Amino acid sequence: MENEKNEKKTDIGVGKKICIWQDMEECGDCNLDEVLFCHPKTKYLIYFAFPFFIGLIPLILIVIFASIYLPFKLIFFISWAVYAMFFFNVWETRILCNHCPYFANESQKVLHCPIDKGKYKAGRYDPGPLSLSEKIQFGVGGVLLMIFPIPFLIIAELYLALFIYAIAIVLWIVIIQSKVCTDCINFACPLNRVPKEIRKEFMEKNPLIKKAWEEEGHIFE
User: Fold this and answer.
1) Nearest Cα to Cα of residue 177 among 88, 47, 54, 46
2) For residue 103, which phi and psi values (nearest 5 degrees)?
3) Phi/psi at 182 (nearest 5 deg)?
4) Would you tell me the crossing angle of helices 207-214 and 196-205 to the nearest 10 degrees?
5) pLDDT digits (tens, 9 = 90+) for 89-148
6) Residue 197 pLDDT exceeds 70
7) Where are the alpha helices (DSSP H) in the chain?
8) DSSP assignment string, 48-74
9) Helix/strand/coil for 120
10) pLDDT 10s digits, 50-86
11) Among 165, 145, 163, which Cα is nearest to 80's?
12) What angle do CA 50, 52, 57 make, to 5 degrees?
């Protein structure tokens, strides 16, 4: 049993150098888990997903029951779903998720992040910040995903669905910025809002990440 435990610890590659992959007993007097999601917590998935589905479900129902040519509906739903799958599982994973400490465990083929749990890990872990190109790609890709249904709803004159969806997007941004992004350990994300002093404390416990950021010119005071 002890051998299996030791094997698990040596089997995670670069993850061995990231504190979140240590056993919780090894955290000692560190209380960062009270202000960061160093370990998976279901509440973050609820905060992240629930506001968006408040708008998404009515939108889908209104489109389904609207008197619109069926092939037009199918093209809309299929194209939006295909793009969402591509963005979340390929594009975003390679430009954003791969900078997250949850990506560092090399023994896992899928993410165990509380928000993106189960997402295939395309690419390799990069402990440093996003490049300018990655920031631009993340912004463009995310905005395209959110505005994707808007032209269709306008053309189809489904203004109630458009209104509900717009309110849900605003609500989603407000909630993730106040409840999720303030605790997220992926400091590379442009939406991250973890306070500087907490970020610095986390960096001090993870020299591998700190060094990668300092090599890109970042200073943690």
Assistant:
1) 47
2) -85, -15
3) -75, -15
4) 120
5) 999 999 999 999 999 999 999 998 888 888 888 888 999 999 999 999 999 999 999 999
6) yes
7) 2-10, 42-65, 70-86, 92-95, 132-147, 149-155, 159-175, 196-205, 207-214
8) HHHHHHHHHHHHHHHHHHSS--HHHHH
9) strand
10) 888 888 899 999 999 999 899 999 999 999 999 999 9
11) 145
12) 90
Mean pLDDT value across the chain:
90
CA distances from 180 to 18, 46, 186, 191, 193 (A): 21, 10, 11, 10, 9
Distance CA 47, CA 79 (A): 26
Domains of the chain by residue range: 30-214
Q: Indicate the pTM of the whole model.
A: 0.88
Distances (CA, A) of 109 to 90, 91, 124, 194: 14, 17, 11, 27
Tell me the two tokens of residue 84: 């969402």
CA angle 21, 22, 27 (to 5 degrees): 125
Structure tokens, 57: 């479900």
Distance CA 157, CA 176 (A): 30
Please report where in the chains the tokens 């849900």 appear, as a residue. 168
Amino acid identity at 4? E
Which amino acid, residue 62?
I
